[in-house]
TrEMBL record, chain A:
GO terms for molecular function: branched-chain amino acid transmembrane transporter activity. InterPro entries: ABC_transp_permease, LivM-like. It is found in: Cell membrane. One of its GO terms (cellular component) is plasma membrane. The lineage of its organism: Bacteria, Pseudomonadati, Pseudomonadota, Alphaproteobacteria, Rhodobacterales. This is Branched-chain amino acid ABC transporter permease. It is a multi-pass membrane protein. It holds the Pfam family BPD_transp_2. Keywords: Cell membrane, Membrane, Transmembrane, Transmembrane helix. Its main location: membrane.
UniProtKB/TrEMBL annotation, chain B:
GO terms for biological process: amino acid transport. It is a multi-pass membrane protein. This is Branched-chain amino acid ABC transporter permease. The chain crosses the membrane at residues 20-39, 70-86, 98-122, 142-162, 191-214, 220-240, 252-279. Belongs to the binding-protein-dependent transport system permease family. LivHM subfamily.
Amino acid sequence: MFRHTFLRYAVLALLAAAALLRALTAGYFGLEILAEILILAILVLALDMVAGFGGMVSLCHGALMGLGAYAYGVLCVHAGLAPLPALAGAIALTGAVAWAIGAICARAHGIFFIMATLAFGQMAYSWVFETPLLGGDDGLGGIPRPDLSLLGIDLSDSRSFVLFCLAATALAYGAAVLVLRSGLGRSLGGVMHNEQRMRALGLTVWRVKADVFGLSGMLAGLAGALAAMQVMYISPGLLAWTTSGEALVVVILGGLGTLVGPLVGAAAFVTLKHGLSGVTSHWHLVVGLILIAVVMSRANGLFGWLEARWGARLDRRLADATREDTPREATNDA
Amino acid sequence: MTTDPGFWLLQTLNALQLSMLLFLLSIGLTVIFGLMHFVNLAHGALYAAGAYVAASVSAVAGFWAGLVLAPLAVAVIGVLLYGGLIRRMRRSGPMAQVLVTFGLIFVALDLTRLIWGDIALASAMPPLLEGRLSVLGIDYPLYRLFVIGLGLVVFAALAFVLGRTQIGAMIRAGVDNDAMAACLGINVERLFFIVFCLGCALAGLAGAVAAPLLSVSPDMGLQILIPTLIVIVIGGLGSLQGAIAGSLVYGFVQTFGAVLAPGLASVLIYGLLAAILVIRPTGLFPAKG
């Protein structure tokens, strides 16, 4: 189960402040990068929910995100729905697909779970690639952004759009925390630590897994719809398994099972990518080496390392300062 | 068209040729996984390295030199990888191994681009195998028949080694229960080292064989990785029968799917994989019951 520590609040506040500051001051290119970070952040939040808190390492979240993007695009362009209902429809549809995938894969563990999700992701990819209605290889263009002129907001302006993405990311974070703190989230933690015991306690294990996977899919669908709005165009490449692989890399670089860590990872990854691609065309080499170094150092990513080093000490000092009667140990079990 | 026996023969040969290429790749990966529970996603990168070495060598010294040198060169890469990374990752979980080897894919991708450039290389076929052979009324490229033959030879050799020799018995014991095998005095760690190098060499061989058929490009390792993983998951991890069965299933479904139901072909194989994972979560011929 997920708990906020002082360090988590601090990093969260720092990230939010930095994002807000950039959103208000950055130029056009900076805003595009920020939107990319925020969309990736929602995707990795979704992935961390299942991978970090349920042990379900999914390689289909990129495909789910792509599905959300296509659902939004098709509902807008072909079905003629207004953007906001289309957004809701895309999130619901992606959630339903993710629930089904989660239910089918619930029996598989370890490498087989990874492969099964990979298979479903690739299935969606090939299907989109070969469906003429979705534009196939050419992708789908002319996707509108929501019209918020009632609130006096014009989303075609990139600054407003970035603020819209920031609000969506905050909502997604809140939703993830709520889910993980609910009974469902606690059951999921139990399933991750000891599935047999949870089954013996009378829990329908596959339902718990499928429900959380579905909720995580809804977040991925939201990320996809935002990505479609950002570039106003979708290509099937969004569904390819390398997108899922990259999202997994971001979660690991940030810190699996911390929710805040993946946000740090998303910011670091996109910044690094754009920073390096300006200097060298071989940025994959650098990212690969960093990934190998981080995994081999056995730290739980950047944020996990920070937490192991400072988190406990900060919490203890805070507890001393407020003179709590029962000195509680800082918990890192989330 | 579909009533013509020549059509069926032609597609069967095509399917066999694809299957054999995948078999050469998947056997190394599956035995490494079965023996040491090590997930090596960088196997595709080794295949790409083999193709590049073969293409470079064959441009200077001819195809056959490339075919011999590529597996050796990739085996040397395997030794370096083993000493530098794999041995230290042995005790960590599958998640860490997947990620480290995923990082290796990134590194290998850019290293090949740095060394050989972005442009795809072409590799010439040997003059001996350039022609076409008339088989039961159809003309079929000799080189593709050579690929099928090579795959069958490797399969026969591995079946003999694994089934009839002492080292094969040791490998099977290690796959079945590595702790027990170690108690019986088998040096499982050394066994793994040998199998790992052999698997790398086979990946290099597959790359060298594939080089004249496909163009040699930096992302060829990434493209072949998913089919290889599908093969070993369909077949079941760790067994020779699984690798050959999975390769044949993949080769035939993919080839006949592409000609008979073009719209469905690529969805078909993933659907099949999902169905197999649901019905038999450990594959068709898992090494362990």
